[in-house]
Task: structure prediction
Amino acid sequence: MAMKANYLFRETGSNLRRNITLTLASIVTVAVSLALFGIALLLRQGVDNATQRWEGGIEFVVFMNADASAAQLQAVADALDASPEVAKITFFDQDKAFEEFKDLFEGTPELIETVQPSDLPTSFRVVPSDTDPDAVEQLASRFETSPGVREVVSAQETIRNIESLTNIASFIVLLGSVFLLAAAAALIFNTIRMAMFARRREIEVMKLVGATNWFIRLPFMVEGMIQGLLGAGVAVGAVFGANWALDRYLSDRNSLQLLESFVVATEDVWRTSFLLLVIGVIVGTLGSAIAVSRFLDV
Amino acid sequence: MAMKANYLFRETGSNLRRNITLTLASIVTVAVSLALFGIALLLRQGVDNATQRWEGGIEFVVFMNADASAAQLQAVADALDASPEVAKITFFDQDKAFEEFKDLFEGTPELIETVQPSDLPTSFRVVPSDTDPDAVEQLASRFETSPGVREVVSAQETIRNIESLTNIASFIVLLGSVFLLAAAAALIFNTIRMAMFARRREIEVMKLVGATNWFIRLPFMVEGMIQGLLGAGVAVGAVFGANWALDRYLSDRNSLQLLESFVVATEDVWRTSFLLLVIGVIVGTLGSAIAVSRFLDV
Amino acid sequence: MIKLENVTKAYKGEVLALHEASCEINKGEFVFLVGPSGSGKSTFIRLLNKEEQPDKGRIFVAGKDIGTLSSWKVPYLRRNIGCIFQDFKLLPNKTVGQNVAFALEVIGRPNHVVRNQVPAILELVGLSKKMNNLPHELSGGEQQRVSIARAFVNRPLILLADEPTGNLDPATSVGIMRLLDRINRTGTTVVMATHDRGIVDTMRRRVVELDRGTIVRDQARGVYE
Amino acid sequence: MIKLENVTKAYKGEVLALHEASCEINKGEFVFLVGPSGSGKSTFIRLLNKEEQPDKGRIFVAGKDIGTLSSWKVPYLRRNIGCIFQDFKLLPNKTVGQNVAFALEVIGRPNHVVRNQVPAILELVGLSKKMNNLPHELSGGEQQRVSIARAFVNRPLILLADEPTGNLDPATSVGIMRLLDRINRTGTTVVMATHDRGIVDTMRRRVVELDRGTIVRDQARGVYE
Ligand SMILES: Nc1ncnc2c1ncn2[C@@H]1O[C@H](COP(=O)(O)OP(=O)(O)OP(=O)(O)O)[C@@H](O)[C@H]1O
Ligand SMILES: Nc1ncnc2c1ncn2[C@@H]1O[C@H](COP(=O)(O)OP(=O)(O)OP(=O)(O)O)[C@@H](O)[C@H]1O
Ligand SMILES: [Mg+2]
Ligand SMILES: [Mg+2]
Result:
């Protein structure tokens, strides 16, 4: 094939510069498409996170009377310990409860001011080993009548609703992201084909002067790769931006502990970004290669 | 301007046919972009519907004992009637409860077989006039001790969670659809500009032969309009398809009453479709007009 | 009809394509524009068409200073000027017939006129059979003749011809020159850039010679050199 | 070197561009291809380049039947053939220098060769100053000369020239013909389609005349007609 690297880079560079309209068009298309896809992926990640957190959070809380004696506390703790269905127990004394209260109401300091640790009840947070809601309820009800217990609260109804909600949300987002990926592929390929169409005469002339298919194809592929990379780069920016915006939106409203679970780990954002770059490069390179082939048999 | 309609239609028709690659490219772009936007709009409508339904559904249920006497029933009914905070009461006798049960478990007929109407408790569904969860709870608790009442169930916790969830879902979808509309506009304009770029020589020649700007522009605008219309048509098809798929998904799982509220009214689908067609036509026509102008000053 | 006053045109500020050219062409004249390759003949013609703007000097066509012409009036100027371009400039997506018809449709001629005139003019340039072919399906000479037909078809006041016989064999060239002559006799002003010594020497019309952008000769009833 | 055996080529099944043409051209010959516009000269040349396929008959170039040539070998065939196209076929996005250099880069010539040869050949066709211009910034004749330079630059075995002087003034034409003659004398086979009676009559080489696709004359040391 005997193509000199210097020819390749010169050729690619000047093509990118000269056909600036087409270059920009391709980059915009790749960027928009991949940004949509990337955001859909993150959303799905968020939904999964939330589901996991909530499922992991199936628990019940045994609230003690404020005047429960140490012996009563110990008795309840022992009973919980002895139950094989209990996976984990956390004792929340008044200080711990106050900490949690402060976390929850971070946004409204005036509320925190009015509350004293001693106003809050002590409680046991119990994580059952079997997360089946019925089993949890049965377990919880056993402690309702223990001395010193004020109330046992389990959130089975909520959990059932939330589970079905996140199921459907996750499904919709998955569907959406697959659809977006297909749409992105169609749009990007479309754009590359149009760019090639505008340059079909040029390709024809190259062939007539004795250029082999690879000699013509390679600069187009490198060009496509760079466009894909740049477009994906913009998309990555958009994804980070969207993630940041969501973060902010959620932390503005963080009185709702529920929503915090939507936040996606930075690691996930990086992984998604990497995926977008790979897709961008592959689509750009292969798309160009395929699109140019249509005009190569002269 | 003196352009003959027959010239206009002939010109538009042959342009659409001859530049089939560009025509298809534009249609695909419009279709994909508007389909995404349309689906986002419907999703938002679904989320809104769900929110509304759930909010409208803030109610509590007073379950009576199976052996409650007619007098007890009447007493509870009267007490509810007399409360000014109650907006609406529905009495569910055992037949009605059974109907509801059948609706809920349509998918699992074996379950329906095993249940008799007499197994089900009678109940009052109470819709309070004030939907504030605290007020509802207070109202509900008043009936807990009335004779013949087995249990009063109010869903305040669930409602609170769901409200915050739907709030965020609605926000995300709104953000998504605005983003998609912007992306769609960018992509469509992009495509039109590329198509024009491929035909800039042609436009130049027309100008040199003495064609006025409008004489050149008009066929391009009609062409753009038709492409926009066709693209939007495909998008409308996709929206109907997506809606149908969602409907099916939801009705397959209709044991979850909760999700039914996601279903979007056919009227909404039609309204969205109409909107998509209008956007398609406007973007196609104006986009072409603007894009062609760039090449008109020769 | 056409007047150039000290017209200078440089491309990219370097190449002097036309330098202080002054020249007056009367209604009904037939002028040959000769000169070596790159001497500015096409530039001369493009300036008359307002395809290019002069850097200096003024140009009058049909009594109007085209330098001050507002841009929406340019199409109306061009409708009075038939132009045969050196590179033909045919519309690639229109058939031969449609290309020629386009020049008539642009000025709003009724359909029946278009339907009559187009085949007649194609007959005249010997392309009746190619009416429904696309330009890329024609030989070089055939494309050139389509360009000629399009420039003629709406009977312009002025005809600018940039090497209209460059791709034609001698016999066809003679036919085309007869046609140009006939058109000129009906009162149309003709400016024709050419390299064809034979044609210039046979016709014996006014010859304007350019050399590196300067008018070096302007001779009535002249020869090629 | 080149042999056509009963070659017939029809476009779209109707237009007979070439009909039962047989012709043998030896290594080192110089052949003029003449005939009226549309008689099939360009088609003849395009068939040798495998730009078009014949409908019937066989074509041999450099001893190989190019009808049976597998498609990946076509570029290598074309590298032995320099071609001056009637419509120039320059790459619109490359400068004059890059257009000429492209023909060398395609065959993998080292950089220093490209850097030497390109300015030399442009000097030869009189375009040293236009090295860094884009094709659309050139006059018709200048574009034609770039096309000529590109066809020459890699010293092909065969040179196909489709009206290489159509846009050139007589003086420049003579220069180009001298160049073609010189190249021919070094052993290159030249096939040139032309309308220029003067050139054919002066050079007195073999003349093949086409008329509506048929070879009507094949004369050694012939004249235009
Ligand atoms: N767009 C342009 N940009 C830069 N230079 C140009 C441009 N158009 C023409 N030129 C230069 O201006 C000079 C005159 O060009 P012009 O086309 O007028 O020549 P010409 O007399 O028509 O030549 P030919 O007989 O070869 O057609 C040439 O040197 C050409 O390279
Ligand atoms: N792609 C094509 N499709 C249909 N017809 C074609 C095509 N190319 C050429 N022709 C026709 O074939 C005939 C021969 O064309 P060709 O280009 O070989 O003529 P030529 O001798 O080169 O003419 P000229 O001197 O005008 O360049 C012409 O009648 C032309 O219209
Ligand atoms: Mg010129
Ligand atoms: Mg030809």
